[in-house]
Each structure stands twice: as C-alpha cells, then as structure tokens.
Specification:
The protein is α/β, with parallel strands linked by helices. The chain is about 50% helix and about 10% strand. It has 35 helices and 24 strands. The strands form 8 sheets. The protein has a 6-stranded mixed sheet with strand order 3-2-1-4-5-6. It has a 4-stranded mixed sheet with strand order 7-10-9-8. Strand 20 and strand 21 form a beta hairpin. The longest helix is centred in the C-terminal third of the chain and has 34 residues. The radius of gyration is 34 Å and the shape is globular. The termini are far apart.
Length: about 850
Amino acid sequence: MKKIYLIDGSSYIYRAFYAMRNLSTSSGMPTNALYIITRMLLKLLNDAAPEYICFVQDTKGPTHRHERYEAYKANRQKMPEDLQTQIPHIQRTIDALGIPCLAKQGMEADDLIATLARGFSTRMEIVIISGDKDLMQLVGDRVRVWDTLKDRVYDPAEVKAKYGVAPEYIADLLALMGDKSDNVPGVAGVGQKGAVQLITQMGHLDNIIQHRDKITSARQKKAIDDNINDALLSYELVRLDKDTATGVGLDDFRLKPKDDKTLARIFEEMEFFALAKTFSTDTPRGHGLVIEKITYTCNPDITAGAGIYLVPGLGYAINNGHQNSVCLDPDENPGITGTRPPIIMHDAKQAIVSRLKKDSRAAASRPDCLIPDTSGIFDTMLAAYCIDAANGNTQLETLAKRHLGLDLETLKDLLGSGRKAVDPDTIEKEKRGAFLAAHAQILKPLKKQMAERMEAAQVTNVYSDIEIPLMGVLASMEVAGVGIDTSILSGMSAEMGEKLTVLEEKIYHLSGRSFNIHSPKQLGIILFDEVGLPVIKKTRTGYSTDNSVLETLAKDHELPGAIIEYRSISKLKNTYVDALPRMIDPWTKRIHSHFNQAATATGRISSSDPNLQNIPVRTIEGRRIREAFLASSGYCILSADYSQIELRVLAHITGDPALVDAFEQDMDIHAGTASEIFGIALDEVDQGQRRAAKIINFGIMYGMGPHRLSKELGIGQKTAKAYIENYLARYPGVKQYMEDVTARASQNGYVSTMMGRRRGIKGINSQNFNEGQAAKRIAVNTPIQGSAADIIKLAMIQIDRKIEAMKARMIIQVHDELLFEVPTAEVETLEALVKNEMETVTSLRVPLKVDIGIGENWAQAH
C-alpha cells in the first residue's frame, strides 16, 4: 500500500530551532533551524523515498479556536528574531527539495493534517512526521506518528504506552489535564495521572461528565463539578477538525524533482559547504575524492603551488597536481626502513599548507629546520582565521568538510575492500600513506575556495600583510626560547609548600575538620552546611564555590579568604613554579613557549606550554616568577610595552574630543576621567577616585554595566549607574560609537578592526536578553582590542625585519608587551629602533606611547 508523509512543519521548525543553538554563518546570521530541518528532510527523502509528501504549516492570524477562547495560545511568545530570519531560507530549501507545502489562512496545521489523514487513510498509509501530542489522537490502523528527531514511531500500542490511554482518548486526556503550551485550561485539580484514571474507569469526557456522581474520588468529583465548562471548552480546543476544506487532491502532494542548482546555491550562502558540494553540478557526489597516484620517496620534486601536508612523527606528503609523493618517518612507522625524512620546507616558496608554523616547529629537531621565508606560503589555518576569527575550528578536516564537502576522517573507506591478503606492515603503510596523500591533495582546491572567501570578506590584506609574515616571526620566537633560572623557582617552591601547609592547618581549624580543599563539593558542604555561611549561588551539581562567591563571603568570615589565598598559591606553584623546570628543552636548555596565532576571536596572540599571559603582574609571587626568566651571559632583557594602547585606540575610533585632547596633552587619562565624571579639578582627584575612573575607563570597553561596577568598587548600583552615565555624558563620542557599532553588528552580523580583521557576532539579534547583551559587549570591545592586537602584530613584523642583521632577537609577546634578548653592545641601538617602530607603525588621532625597560631578567625589565 502506498504511503503519504505529512510533516507537521510549524512544530518541526520550532523544535529544530531549539534542538541546536549557536550555529551561524561567518557574518553572524543564525542557521541552526535551517540546518536541522534540512538534514531531517534529506534523511527522510533518502530513507523513505516517498512518492507523496507534504510540509503542512500554520499561518499568521486567529483561528476558529481563538473565536471560541480569546486566551487560546495567549501565552505563546512572539517568534524569536533568530528564527524569523531563517523562515524564508527554510521555505526556499523546502521548495528546492521538491516537497509540496500546504497552509490555509485561519486554519491550524494540525487540522489540515487531520483532514488529510482522514481523507487518504481509506486508500493508503499515513505517516505523520511530528512529536506533537495533539496529533496522537489521529493514530490508527493506517495512521502512524513518526517523531524523526527522536526516531520513534507511534502506533496505537505505543501511544497507550506513553500516554496511558488509546489514541481515541487523547483529546479527552488533554481536555482533562489541560495543555500549558496552548493555554488550554483543562480541569483544575485533575492532572495527567488523574485524567488517565478517569478515562480508564469511565471512558470519554462526555460520559465522565454525565456520570460524574459515580466518580469514587471525592476530590476528582468536585474538580469535575466545579469545572464542567472548562472541560467542555478544553475538549473543543484540543479536538482536531477532520473536515477542513483543503481544496487539494492526492496528485498535489506528489514529490517533485530536486533543484540541485538552487540547493547548492542556498547551502553555499548558508555556509553548509559539505551540503553545497553534494548538490553542486560540477562536483562528484559522495566524498568526491579519489586519491591520486602515490610514490613513496623522501626526495620529492617540489614544484610551485604544491600542496604540502606534514604530520610530526608520521611524515609528509606533497601533491603537485597529478601525483602524491609520500615520505613516512621510519622511527614511527612499521615496515619503513631508512633515515628520518628531511624537513623539506626550505624549498617550499609557493607551497599550500595547513598549520605550518605549528607542525614545522614540532617536526624540527634543530633550530635551523624552520621555514626561512613565508612570503609565498598559503596556510589554510590562517586563511580560515582571517575569514572569521570567531569561527573556531581551523583544522584541515573541518575546513575540508566546510568548503569542499569532503570527509577526511573516513579515509579508510577510500582504501578499497576485498583485496588479497598482504602483510600487516604493508597495509599500515598504505593507510598512513593514503592519509597523508589525501590531505595534501585537497590543499590546492581548498586554497581556491578560501581565497575567494577572503576576497568576498575583504580580509585578504589582513592575511597577506599581517598573518602570513607574522607566522615566520612567531616561529623564530618559539625556536629562540628563553632562559630559566631554576634555583629561583626551586626556592619559591619550597617557600610556597610551607605556606600551603600553614594555610591548610588554618583552613582545617576554621572548618572544624579536615577535608579535600581542592574538591568544590566537599568545600560547599563545609562552607554552607557545616559552617552555615549564606548560599550565594548554586550550580547544577550543588553549591557554587568559585572565587566570586568566596570573595563575597570573605567580607564576613575568615575561612573563605584563607581558601582564596590557598587556591592562588597552589595554582601558581603547580602551573609555573614546579612546572617551568620540567619544560626546559634538554637540547637548548631553554623554555620554548608556543605562540598561538589563530586561537583568539579578538585577533590577539596567545601562548601555551607555558601560558605566559597568566603570570600575575602585580603580585609579589608573579614578580618573582618573572625574575626566573633571564638573559644569557653577556645579554640583557629589553621590555617594550605599549602604554594604554586600547584607550588610545578607543580615542582614535570614537574621535571623542575630550579623550583625544587628554592623550595629545599627555595627561594622566585616569585622573582626567575622574575629573570629568566627578566634576572636580584635576589636582583634586584622589587615589580612590582615580582607581574608580581607571576601572570605568577599561570597563566601558568591555561593556561593564552598573551591577559589575558596583561589585568592583564596592558601591551601590545606583551610584555605579550614575558614574557610567556621567562618563558617557562627558565622552559623547564613546556613547555614539557604542550605539553605532552595535547597530552595524546587528545589521551585518559582524564587526571589523581598523585593519579590516573580521569577527562574526553570534547572538547579536537574539531575543534572549543575556545572550543579546553579551553579544553587544563583544561587538563594542572587538574593534578596540582587535585593532590593538593588529598594531602590535604589525610592529613585530617591522621590528623583525629591522633586527635581522643584529644579534638581538625577539623572544616573548604578552598582551601589549614585547621582550627581546639583546647583547649589551646593541642595547642602545635596539631601544631606539624598537621605540620608533612601535610608536610609528600606524597613524592614529592620538600618539602611540611605548615604555622601555632593561634588566638582567624579565622582572627587572618590566
């Protein structure tokens, strides 16, 4: 018997929207509902191969149920804007898939489905695609409800198993228990369990009402007596209308041929790149990848434009457009004999690569094994980062799926099956060779796609002028490393160990017993159940004991303060004092931190192993850790630190006259702000007022509101609100900038830095207040912080070129500070050069200012 598939479209669109959040294009347009609906429909078409199908939808405006009951669905919120923007694209996709649609003004989708199910069930099977309980009343011999999101099919037995009653009683059940989602009142005091009992004992609602004197439960009888009208009204609201005039016949629901060209275009626009490639008329279906001929050699012919894929410990592959040359590392691969493959990157002037700095650094066993010149390199990771710094994953496998529709994680399927048995080593060699070759082979087509996307996003200059030349600078810094004085750290470790022992005893004394201080669960029990401190906030697993909670509690009790101190010392000891000596390279006797070029959404460089950014700046312990970073004999450490660069960028971007004037006059900007917002003379500003102004100056750039400011300054929210209002009144250019940049982000879905670096702003139009406010804060901050990041990157590139002939070398970048290791004979020359390059690297409305420090170690220089 033939089948017709009736999709409860309106319900499914909402379910898809809430099933997966935070999916959007690089410009910030939400695509989560479209993606889930698309995948669901494609799976349905592929698995079921339906001949007849219909996507049934609601329309705007009141229905006959609203005429009966004005409050029907009155509690429903307006469609979220993030979903509303996707509806036209959802409709385009459904049409292009060839799926007929049905909607009638004044009629609900459920009634249309009920009518179609009744009309067609005499000659064919009906499959209703939905998870809506209202539609369960239609289930019968030839009618099933299929919840594809949960992959569960409901026949009469399944309906009864889930709801406790057979399908023909679902309307009675809903009428008795009510339905909050549709604002159906039901019978107060009955509930689902009671409704099931009444239906089981007495049948349909009309019989229950007619024979209510036979109800054994006095409470249930009274509930029915008191709410007969609500029960009857509710029944009329939930009972589906099976006699709606649809004006259509079976042939109207015949599946049409797919429009592959339109689907490919839609999916390309929505950045569903794997789907786009599947439907593209000029790309093979499926994985679309046939591995070209593989030659195993460690002396490949590298031609211009070759794709090079390197995996430390495995080997590398080079694709020249028609052949793959694979070199496997004999130390790590079975069945491979010979010597370790050379690092071939010296000759790769026009190579296409992925994560070059990271992989070449990891593969290098000596400092001279890195790329000397990056000018001709195309790096897919950096290209993806420039297209949208907030897009996250820049792994080659992800980019292949996104831009080419290829799944490189299932390469085992490309090796064929049913081959004659060969020795295991040969099979392993072929698998690893195919893995490397496939990655190298897709680099050339990937470059084409990503270059076009960079051009469309207008970020090609960010890529070519900043990120590509910076790659070589950072690689050189990683190889250079920095010396470490282990004796300083050893002494600190012993002192910190003693402090922790004393603090541990103090904490146990204040708690009344010993416990695991590192366990949030045990700590929560101690603080709130046993000591009796007030609960500030809870998590899903229990009490929150984060530092913000402890800081609040510390005002009234000694124990939380002791725990804060214990945590701080313990973290520094474990993360730096004890860990740094273990990170010393046995070959160079130095620490080689990784400088991560494509890790932050703002464009800033981060570091790892060790993370140099997290060493405290203002504490004694932080200073002593910096003392352990020392120069080699005959050398000094030179520190060059931008002074208030983000505030200077803010002055430049906003053009606010008061801010610009303050920097042009080389005024103490925080004292100047205090003077403005407190309405006092500059020479009357005290340290407390200056501190408050400093917090406001930086807080405004990060979207700080009255609540946060009140906590930071220990003042009331009303006072904090007045401070912020005074600030924005005194600096109207800043207020205007905040309004303008959030408006642009809302319209475009992204913001850009001065140099054009782009960041998508997800959630900027979200109806969720917290999500929307967080997105606005990011939109305000990113152009400022991102521009500051671009400025120091440009300065690093220029300085690196200028010191090439010197012995001095750049070794560390942290926030707005650059560190150099310089021979004493070159100190004066380097100081003048660095200061000039950093202060003149770009032209702002206000001068850039750099503070220089020199010392034997980082602490002295800083």
